[in-house]
Structures are given as structure tokens and as C-alpha cells.
Amino acid sequence: MTQTTELPPVLFLSHGAPPLADDATWTRQLGAWGNSFTKPKDILMVSAHWENAPVTLSATERNPGLVYDFGGFAPRYYEVEYDAPQAPDLANEVARLVGQHGHHVARDESRGLDHGAYVPLKEMFPDADVPVVQMSMPTLDPQGLFKLGESLAPLRDRGTLIVGSGFTTHNLRWFNPAGGPDTAPPAVSSEFDQWAEEAMARGDVDAILDFLNKAPAAREAHPRSEHWAPLYVTLGAAYASGDLHAKTAIDGFWFGLSKRSWTLS
User: Fold this and answer.
1) Would residue 213 be called left, alpha or beta, if left means φ above 0 and alpha means ψ between -120 and 50 degrees?
2) How far apart are CA 52 and CA 68, in angstroms?
3) Where residue 2 falls among pLDDT bands split at 50, 70, 90?
């Protein structure tokens, strides 16, 4: 890992499905990304696959195992393990920070990491030696999640890596396994991806939060916004200082879906 005294970045990543592990290109990209910054003290994951109100934190007292929140895949995908250490200190700090902003925080000791968390982490931090806690999204409201992210910004001062895990475009009607991962994306997927790249590059937070009205093919790229919503949390955490610098870390498409991912600072 690169050694630096800078604050850890904030990440938004497109997490893929369990077969991501079979994609040599994407696994290599995620591995290189994980090696491009200092190994964090711990990791706070916000995944598209956990919506729960109030804000809820995953297990910290014991390891309940992974959440295999998918169906129809080969048995080997249900045998994957990722035994990252628990992160009770991080969970306590998250509860304190978001509590100061009016959120009640619950704990779920039966909840492990879902595939939006462990699939990319297994490629980025394969040694599973960084403590991780996952936080639910209590709403899909852009402003609400942005403010939640703002409350989490001080975590960076203690060395925490904040990760929003979703997908830059997520319309499973486009997903065609028969065509292979390198199938050309639908035009609307490419259009949304280009808009997202440009909006992030210019730091246009207002446009991103109002993507349904500002982005081309927004409702086709995201028939439901849960895979875009983790970006709101990361924007809040990164933009707390009043400025946003976003750099594309991974781009391209996977079965027609944009896997664009950003490093935010």
C-alpha cells in the first residue's frame, strides 16, 4: 500500500454481482485501486443492498458470516468467505456522529456483510485484515443521504475509509449473460455514464442529487435508485469541506452496465 499522511479518500464503487470474481480485468482493476492509497484503519461500507430504517449497523460482537443475498448462481458463490475483523470502535463512532445529527442508530448482531460489500472488498483487500462495519441506508432520499454522509465526514480524520457500493447504471433488463461481460452497452447506458462522468468531474453535486431531472435516460439507467443512492452518502462525506474532487478509478461496462467508480477527496 502507498504510504501517505493524507486523509483517506472516499470511494463510490460499482460492485457487480458474485461472478465479478471471475472477471480478470475487473478484479485486476479493483486490486490496483486498493493498492493506490494507504491501507485504512477500518472501513465503513454503505451498500445498495441494505435499506433499513433507522440507521442500522452490522454485527460487531461476533462474526455472523456473510449475507448471500442473491439467487440462481452456482453453488461455489455461496461458499465464498471474507472474514474481515469486526469494527466495534468504528461502529460506536458512527453511532455517535449520526446520533448528533438526529438519527437513532440500531445494531443488528445477526447481520454480516452482503455481496455489495464483500464482493469488491475481497478484490481490493484480499487479506481481509481491515476491520469493516456496514451501515444501512435509512432512506433513498438524496438530500437525506447527503446529510447523513456529511455527518460521517469526521471519520476520515481517524483513518476510516468510507465506501458507497452501488452501480453507475443498474437496469437488469440490459443484463444478457449470453452476450458476455464485454457486450456493447445500450446507448442509454453509455449516455448516462457519460453524463455521470462529466457531472462528477465538474463537482456538480446539485445535478447529481437531482439526477432524475438532470441526467439523460435516468429512469432507464435506474428504474429504482437504490444502486445510485450510496453515491449520495459518499458525496456528503467528501463534500463536507465545501469542495469536491472526483477522479474516475474504474470505467467501462459489464454486461451492459456501467461499472464506473470514483475516488473522491
Assistant:
1) alpha
2) 17
3) very low
- Of 161, 144, 125, the C-alpha closest to 263 is 161
SS3 assignment for 14-36: ECCCHHHHHCHHHHHHHHHHHCC
CA of 110: how far to CAs of 55, 107, 122, 230, in Å?
15, 9, 21, 22
Q: In sequence order, what DSSP letters do the residues of 178-192 get, joined into one string?
A: GG-TTPPPPHHHHHH
With 0-12 / 13-18 / 19 or more C-beta atoms within 10 angstroms meaning exposed / middle / buried, residue 71 is exposed
Mean residue pLDDT of the chain comes to 95
Report DSSP letters for 118-153, one per residue. Answer: HHHHHHHSTT--S-EEEEEES---HHHHHHHHHHHG
Q: Using CA atoms, how far apart are residues 74 and 229, in angstroms rounded to an integer?
A: 29
Nearest partner of 102 among 147, 46, 51, judged by Cα: 147
Nearby residues of 95 by Cβ (< 8 Å), 6 or more positions away: 57, 105
Q: How many other CB atoms are found less than 10 A from the CB of residue 98?
A: 21
Q: Model pTM greater than 0.85?
A: yes
- Residue whose C-alpha is closest to residue 163's, from 197, 96, 113, 111: 113
CATH C-level class of 10-186+226-264: alpha beta
Contact status, residue 223 vs residue 236, Cβ threshold 8 Å:
no
Alpha-carbon torsion angle 195, 124, 136, 81, nearest 10: 140
pLDDT band at 4 (very low <50, low <70, confident <90, very high): very low
